[in-house]
Structure formats: C-alpha cells, structure tokens
Amino acid sequence: MSGDLPRLVLVHHRAEATPETVAFVELVRSLVDGGRVAPEVVLFEGGPLAAELEGLAPTTVVADLDTRSGDALVETLLFKARLRDAGYRRRSRRLGLDRWAPGDAVYLHSVLAVQVLRYLPPDRPLVLCRLAEDVYPLRHPLRAPDVALLLRRVDHLLAVTDAGVTVLLEEHGLASERVHRVPEVFAPARGRLPDRRAEIEARRDELGIADDALVVGSFGAYEADAPDLGVLLWAMLARRRRGGRPVEMLWWYQDTGAGFWMTHDLSATGLAPGTHPVSTDQDPGPYLELCDVLVLLTREPDAPFAYLERAAQGTPILCFDINEMAPLAAEGDPRHVAPYLDLAALADELARLLDAETLTEDRDAMLAAVARAHGPAAFADLLVDLVRSRGDG
Amino acid sequence: MSASGRLLLVAPDAEDHAANRAFTALVAALVDQPGAPDVRVLVLGGGPLVAELRAVAPTTVAADLRSRDVGAVVERAVGRAGLRDAAAKVRGRRLGLAGLGPGDAVYLHDVLAVQVLRYLPAGVPVLCRVAEAAHPLHQPLSALDLDLLLERVNRFLAVTDAGIDELERTRAVDPGRIRRALEVVVAPPPADPEQVAALRSRLDLPEQALVAGVFGAAAVEIHAPCAPLAVAVRRRPDAAVVVLLLVVPEHMTDPWALHDIEHAGLADRVRVLALEGEAPPYVALCDLVVHAGWGSDHPRAYLEAAAAGVPVVCFDGHELAEVVGADEGGVVCPRLDLPALAAGVGALARSPERRAAAGASAATRALRLHRPEDAAALLVDECRAVGR
User: Fold this and answer.
1) Which residue of chain A comes nearest to B262, CA vs CA?
2) Chain B residues within 8 A of A302 when measuring between CB atoms
3) Between chains, do A269 and B231 touch, taking CB under 8 Å as contact?
C-alpha cells in the first residue's frame, strides 16, 4: 500500500489510440482523483496514450524494460533453461509485482492482459478483470492455458454484458459471487483518436455507397443477431419511403452462420441492391462512422461498445426494448425503442427519422446520457468498493 | 428404361402417412398410364398400405423375406465369411433384383431407401426423389450411404429448389443429373374429431380461437419469422382471436422461437408443437395456414393443408402462391410485407364464408397442380431419358 491507500495496479495490453484505451486512461484519472487507492499502471506495450498515463500515475511498459541489465540476462537464461516459474518470479521482481500488502489489488482492463497473472504470487493480491463485450468474451485470441489461468486466478470477473455473465456462469461454472454484471466504461475521445476521415471516405468508395445516400448500419451479426429481422425490416422500410434521399444499408458481420444467411437472404429476396454486407474481422470503426443511423436487431441483450461511441456522438440508435442499449436509445427519442419484434414500429420510426430534416440527436444530451450510464467515475467506484471490501487491510 | 423395360419403385416402408399415400397414388397412376412400363414395387419395411400397393402392382416387402429359407441361410453364411459383395448379390436375388438390367429402371421414392442400391446389379439406371427438407440429403444417412447415393444415382428428382441447391452446390452433383420434380399431393383422410378435440384441449386453445398453422422449421429457412409474424398479427383487431400454432419437426431446432415467444410476450398467442409423425392431425386443427418464409421450397405440410381445404396465406414469389392463385385459395401478399401477411390472416379470420370458399379453392388447386398422373408421366419420361 502507498501510505494508507491500497495499491491498485491497472494492467492493459497496450496504450494504442482506441476508444477502449481512452476509457482506460479516464478510469485511471478517476481513480487518481478519487484518492481512495494508489493507482499504478502496467502496459505490455506502449503507444500514443502511454504518455498521458505516465502523467497520471506511475507507469511501467514491459516492452521498454532494459533487455541488457543483469536481471534481464538472468531472466532470459532462466526461460532458456525452461525454468519458467523462476523466470516469471524474476520478471515479477523487475516489474515490482512481487511485493504486496494486504488490501492491494490488480485490475486487468482486458483478458488480453492475462499474462500478468503469471507474474503474481499465487495467493495475493486480489485480482479483478473486466470482460469486454463479445458473444464469446473469453475466446478472443486466448489459448486454453490462458483461459484456465484467468478463470483460476481472477477473484472477480466484471462482465459488461449479460452474455459475458452467462458464459462465465453456465459455460465455465464459476461461482456467482465471482461474477459481476457491470456497465461498460466509456469516455469521449476528445481528440485522442486519429483522424479517420480519409479512411472513412475510402470505405464509402470501396462499398460504392452513393454520395447523397443516408446509411443505416447494423453491426455484430453473431449467432444472436437476426438476419431474418434485418431482411424484413429493410423490406418494410422500402415500402414506407416514397422519395427522399436514397438510403443504403450496411450490415457488418463476422463469418458465422448468421452472416451466411444474411447474404443469402438479401440475394434471394432481391434486396441486395443498396445493401452492403461487410464481413470482416478488422476494426469496424470506419464502417461505423459511415452510418447515419444505427439499428441493433440482436435477439440477446447487448450493448456493443461501438454503439456507445456512436451514441455519444449523437448518432441515433434504434433497438428493441429487451436490448441493453434501450435506455440510452430512448434518451435520444423514446420512439427509437420498439417492443421486441415489433418490426412495423421499428420500420415506422426508421422511416420517420430518415425523412426528418436533421438526423442527429442532441449531441450534448447524448454525451451526458452516456456519461451517466457508462462514465469512468462510476466504474472506478466499483473497483474501489471491490478492492476495499476484501477487508485484508 | 426401354419401352419394354421394367420400373421398380422402392419405398422405405408402407406406413400410413401422407408421403406414402402419395407414393401409392403415384404407383396407381403409373400403372394406369397408356403404354405403361411393367411396374413393380419394393418396400423395405411393411405397413398398412401394403395391401393397397399390392392391389395395383406386384409388391415385395423386404421385411417379410423368410429368415430360414435356403436363400437366407446362404446369405447369412456368406455375410459371416466377410464376403459382403456376394452376400449383397444373394440378397438382391431374393428381392427379385437380380434380373434387372440396363433396359430397366429403379426409382427410390426416398433417400432412406438407399440400402437397396447395394443389392442392384451394375448398370441398372437409378432415379431418386429428394424430398423437401432444409438439408434434404442429411436425414439419418450415414456417410457411406450418402456416398453410395451420390455415386450410384443417375438422376436426382428434387421436389424443391433447396434440394437442387444442396445437390449442386454442397454435393457438387453435375446439374445434368438433377431435375426438378413434381410433389404428389392427395386428399387426406377425414380427421378424427375426437383426436382433434383432444389435441385442442392439450394445447389449451380457447374455444373461440382460430388457429393459424405455421409449419416453420419444416421449410428451408432457418429463421422462419414466426414470432415477428405473431407480433404483427397481435397488432390487428380483426385477428384478436387468432392463435398461431408453430409446428416444428423434431429433427430441426429453432432455438430462437421459444426465446422470441417469451420475450415478446406471445405466450397467449403462440403454441409450439413438436411434430411427431406427419402433419395431420395438426393440419386438422388449423383454420388457415401461413407461410412466412421466403425460401424456394414447397413445404409438404402446406400442400397437405391446402389439399384438406385449409386456406393458405403466403408471400408472392413463393411457390405456394401458385396454390393460392389470385387470392382464390387464400391470400397472397407482397413479398416480405409482414404487416400485409398479418392483414391476410385478419381478412380470413373475420370471415368464415371467405375461409370456407378459399379452403375449397385451395383444395381444388392443390390437387390439380400436384396430380399423381402428371408426376407419373414426368417420372416415365425421366426413366426413359436416363436409359438412353
């Protein structure tokens, strides 16, 4: 502990300029400002936002460790001799992760930081880990030993979606007291992200979207997502609009069965012209930025991070009432939320929106709404409460 | 098949269900054709329809072969010695297949009759009907059976575009070996009122409820939008008494159907029934049937419903629209217009007279468009084409 404050080491895999890392930076800032813990940061790699983190709290970048010091050489020799545990202990010492006082804790902002668990003693400190949104949040690029380590060593998993909770409780059989459903943490970028205008225009050209077309986007066609609903909604929308600016649909999906059916159905029903199924495992960011309206048709409660970003920028979000985005969508306009499966209501609202003079919500109001529901301060309080409730101090 | 050739039709069994009643009608139509080939029937398992088949054509039931005659003993001995090909030849002789040659033809009425291909002499042309299903060739076929089918059948007769699609794209069958076939539909026997009443009670259907049957997952579409349809129907005052009956074949699962029903608050408006056996008596429960999908299939359950005098609501561009005609046998709605589909349901729900007239027309049209005589003529043409 630093003085009387518990030490909280926050770990992130890299300080790249992404919305997730921006949220991490603001989380650290909130913890510093809160004054209830002594934050430190460990990054596996640096990046554009590393300097800002260094200005907030003591920060170590693993990739920047001296590789020629005596300690580094000993560590290398230990790994080469396959004495991995000894190597991890040496690395732990170099990173200052070998000494813990009662009440200290480690927080992983992403499962991709799992490697740090190998540098920790087996029985302390307390470990918390955020489980970001995804249909299979633990799958990522994690290997089986990493998943096993995560599930064994993390004391509290903080899932930002119901899907994450379900995966932990039902697929992995974790005790419910180790699993917490928490709101995703989000913070506005405020100029920290690269200017992607050229990239966005390039994507628009690549897809052949007409210059004057409004773009309706739907993202994340995992198994829960509903290509059948998308096709029906699109057909209903076409019937409701007579004239006005052309509208095109962008359906971003991963390579799953749902994605296959989407492209099949669009083609089989003659709706393909003016629609753009985009299958990619890359960053959906530029495609999201293309969209004037976002529709979330998933059958499961979901609150994709990307939708929070866009909501904060005033992009209207339409969804069903079962969806976790519904309260935020309704902040823009209560009509944006339709009863589950009432496609006619959704199509009516989408048509109204697309024919309206302005398509953008009150940006300040939406930003405030996103901040209320997903601000870093609330997440910071949650972390601190979990750390201090351990009661070892 | 030559002009004097024999045509052997093979079915997996003779159980009394709609597909087999259609098969029996097909056999009878073949026999009655002018210039008919010499028609014989082989059913692998027995069943109540054997007598009807025997009344129209010589029929062998493989399951009735004696197990203790000389042929059976030889077959077992040869099989136990590991001489499978020889055992198959013995079995073929016992089934009367040994005399078949290139001038004859064998027609499998179902892929489940694939076993008989092991007993056929080489060089006998084989045609095989591929019935409607999401994946028509999947069925309970083993990989070996599937390979045998794909290798040995000269012409596949698919009753749906989905079947053609699976054969061409998934199984890489040469399009020259595939034809679109006509499904045979016959009028079903009258429903047992007591059975219908018992089913209605079991489903807890209110007395005044009108039942709209949706045979969703029998069709090609994985995501037949039954729950969105139910929501659209619920919005309509003229459909207030309509309950959707979603009948799901047991080999297909639609994990989202139950989820949707629960989360959209549809428990009072939708009943989900696992299909055990054939569509009736579920069809007998229905005041109308609704096909909410947009695939290119021709679901048998809907054809049977139409043949039984139940009006049909569907999208235009779907093959069922032929049965409905210009709104004679039900209602044809603009493609993918779900509110229009719900309005079609409402229109039939509020008028018993319209339902009765549409049902009668649906029956006439379904039986006329799917006559066994027409299917028989097509089959003979195909047999002769394959034999050339």
Assistant:
1) A340
2) none
3) no
pLDDT tens, position by position, B110-167:
998 999 999 998 889 999 999 876 555 666 688 888 999 999 999 999 988 778 888 9
Who among B225, B235, B294 is closest to A344 (CB)?
Answer: B235
End-to-end CA distance of chain B: 7
For A100-117, write each residue's pLDDT tens digit: 999 999 999 999 899 999
Instruction: Inspect the interface and report whether the beta carbons of A344 and B232 lie closer than 8 Å.
Output: yes
Mean pLDDT to the nearest integer, B75-91: 84
In B, what residues contact A, Cβ < 8 A?
221-225, 227-228, 231-232, 235, 256, 259-260, 263-265, 294-296, 334-339
Q: How many CB pairs under 8 A join A and B?
A: 65
- 253-282 in A: which are within 8 Å (CB) of B? 257, 261, 265, 268-271
- Quick check: ipTM above 0.95? no
pLDDT tens, residue by residue, A290-349? 999 999 887 766 667 778 888 888 899 999 998 888 999 999 999 999 999 999 999 999
- Taking a C-beta distance cutoff of 8 angstroms, is the pair B25, B186 a contact? yes
What's the predicted TM-score (pTM) here?
0.80
Q: Cβ–Cβ of B337/A236 closer than 8 Å?
A: yes
Whose CA is closest to B96, among B49, B52, B24, B41?
A: B41
Distance between B263 CA and the closest CA of chain A, angstroms: 7
Q: What are phi and psi of B289, to 5 degrees?
A: -125, 150
Query: Which of B223, B224, B334 lies closest to A227 in CB terms?
Result: B223
